[in-house]
UniProtKB/TrEMBL annotation:
This is cinnamoyl-CoA reductase. The lineage of its organism: Eukaryota, Viridiplantae, Streptophyta, Embryophyta, Tracheophyta. InterPro entries: Epimerase_deHydtase (IPR001509), NAD(P)-bd_dom_sf (IPR036291), NAD(P)_dehydrat-like (IPR050425). Its EC number is 1.2.1.44. Pathway: Aromatic compound metabolism; phenylpropanoid biosynthesis.
Length: 338
């Protein structure tokens, strides 16, 4: 069936996606193109082969332009964002080094907001993280984590959790600066993101699962983690951009699982891999999942892909991309239903 391009929500609109070659951003570019948008994606080097997957996306030839830009180079951002109806600011340094994490994240975000204000963009959607939300030692285990929660900066500093510290500081700076500049800002706070890779390289969140399949992790930690599918994260960003009434922060999560549950699911779907069966901590009680609410996103019509499907899709993608050896197997078609 032929799709009438003019009827698509993004028809005639141009948006900018920063750090377009990244895991989440690549999916945003894919879904935005499918939605009829023209996309200007910022990358460090448009000619780099690692951005080739973006050019292969449906609609890319007609409506995707890769722009050379650096978060700390205001002029390059101005050029990329000029003429855009909106900006999806996803580019961010991922490192445990406080110097490398905080300053570029904060100053890069300020530069994006300045460029968006000058270009008179309708809205900026900023990718933050659960890291800016849930790191709080004083929160009761029974308290529900939602958009009103913020990570405790002193606690992050004292425990040297620079990722969460950087995310919280960068998001706060985004709110302060957007208010000062009169820019309409909406923030999405995803948890650990899994799912199929569009880009050729493995990112940190995918390695979290890969290590349980290659035999490099002999045990699993006595800890919990919240998970969400990459497609849902990309979809959430577009949903809050397209919904005029959307405002504030949006927690994006599907399930909180103990690592023991994760390896159990992996072993059930993929018994041919050396998935660990022992916990590294046999002394402390099993860590309990925290409670969270995604009611704000659900109220916009968001429906989440299950965490089981998410784990399954991640492994299948790793196999297809050649990051995992393909085991000999007779029939794969029935296994996702279990």
């Amino acid at each position: 069936m032929l799709i009438d391009q003019a009827s698509l929500p993004g028809s005639g609109k141009t948006v900018c996606v920063t750090g377009a070659g990244g895991f989440i951003a690549s999916w945003m570019v894919k879904l935005l193109l499918e939605g009829g948008y023209s996309v200007k994606g910022t990358v460090r080097n448009p000619g780099d082969p690692k951005n080739g997957h973006l050019r292969e996306l449906e609609g890319a030839e007609e409506r995707l332009r890769l722009c050379r830009a650096d978060l700390l180079d205001p002029d390059s951002l101005r050029e990329a964002i000029n003429g855009c109806d909106g900006v999806f600011h996803t580019a961010s340094p991922v490192t445990d080094d406080p110097e490398e994490m905080v300053e570029p994240a904060v100053n890069g975000t300020k530069n994006v907001i300045i460029a968006a204000e000058e270009a008179k963009c309708r809205r900026v959607v900023f990718t933050s993280s659960i890291g800016a939300v849930y790191m709080d030692p004083n929160r009761s285990p029974d308290a529900v984590v939602d958009e009103s929660c913020w990570s405790d900066l002193e606690f992050c500093k004292n425990t040297k959790n620079w990722y969460c510290y950087g995310k919280a500081v960068a998001e706060q700076a985004a709110w302060d600066f957007a208010k000062e500049k009169g820019v309409d800002l909406v923030v999405v706070n995803p948890v650990l993101v899994l799912g199929p890779l569009l880009q050729p390289t493995i990112n940190a969140s995918i390695f979290h699962i890969l290590k349980y399949l290659t035999g490099s992790a002999k045990t699993y930690a006595n800890s919990v983690q919240a998970y969400v599918h990459v497609r849902d994260v990309a979809q959430a960003h577009i949903l809050v951009f397209e919904t005029p009434s959307a405002s504030g922060r949006y927690l994006c999560a599907e399930s909180v699982l103990h690592r023991g549950d994760v390896v159990e699911i992996l072993a059930k779907f993929f018994p041919e891999y050396p998935v660990p069966t022992e916990c590294s901590d046999k002394v402390k009680p099993r860590a309990k999942p925290y409670k969270f609410s995604t009611q704000k996103l659900r109220d916009l019509g968001m429906e989440f892909i299950s965490v089981k499907q998410c784990l399954y899709d991640t492994v299948k993608s790793l196999q297809e991309k050649g990051h995992l050896p393909l085991p000999p197997q007779p029939d794969d078609s029935l296994r996702i239903q279990s």
